[in-house]
Amino acid sequence: MPIESGAGPRWLAAAVLALIIGGCTPVTLTKPSPASTPAPAPVAHRSAMDTLIDQNQLTRLAMNDRDWQVRRAAVAKLTDQAVVARVAVEDSNWAVRRAAVKKLTNELMIARAAVEDKNSDVRIAAVEKLTDQAVLAEAAMLDSNSDVRIAAVKKCTDQAVLAKAAVEDRDWQVRCSAVEKVTDQTLLSWLSAEDRNDNVRRAAGKRLTILKQ
């Protein structure tokens, strides 16, 4: 049946009303405003770690959480050494790897971190846990970072390694750390007179005086 001129709007209104009454109202989906969908609160997420003790949940968080601070907190509470070791080697964030290294009990994994990790803070954490004198000697002599070498010298008991570090290390602070553990009085006497750095010469003289008492 032809629609009379001017009847279009009335017909459309009637059709829409029929749809509403029939429960078939067309719905236009709009993106919620930011205020209606708050972003996750990282701080709250991290604070929840304080009471979390379930090891399965901690493992998932330590391995997979996007927030490195959550991963670090989870690692600190883990008891599964296999998971801790994996995080110590694989995590992309050095602070998480360092937290894992501090939890390690396996000497081989600690030694691996001390020698291989690309971050000096992680290597220092590993060196501070090491008891393997061969690995400590390697770190004391060969590490590219002076702070790592100092940490290794402080744990080293090999007098030959300490003497070499006291004489040959390019960093005066490493040489000072080594001098404080050297027992060779002849060497200390030479260092107190000949080392190119005043601090090392003083440290050698002080160490020599202590040994002579």
Concise structural overview:
It is built from 14 helices and no strands. The protein is mainly alpha-helical and 213 residues long.
Q: What does this molecule look like?
A:
- By secondary structure, the protein is an all-alpha fold.
- The protein folds into two domains: 48-130; 133-213.
- It has 14 helices and no strands.
- The protein has helices at residues 8-21, 42-47, 55-64, 68-76, 81-90, 94-103, 107-116, 120-129, 133-142, 146-155, 159-168, 172-179, 185-194, 198-212.
Which helices and strands occur, and which strands form pairs?
Blueprint: H1 8-21, H2 42-47, H3 55-64, H4 68-76, H5 81-90, H6 94-103, H7 107-116, H8 120-129, H9 133-142, H10 146-155, H11 159-168, H12 172-179, H13 185-194, H14 198-212
Helix pairs in contact: 3-4, 4-6, 5-6, 6-8, 7-8, 8-10, 9-10, 10-12, 11-12, 12-14, 13-14
Salient structural properties:
213 residues; mainly alpha; 2 domains; 14 helices; 0% strand; elongated
Strand content: under 5%
Distance between the termini: 122 Å
- Domains (count): 2
> Poorly predicted ranges (pLDDT <50, ≥5 residues)?
1-41
Element string (H = helix, E = strand): HHHHHHHHHHHHHH
Give the radius of gyration.
33 Å
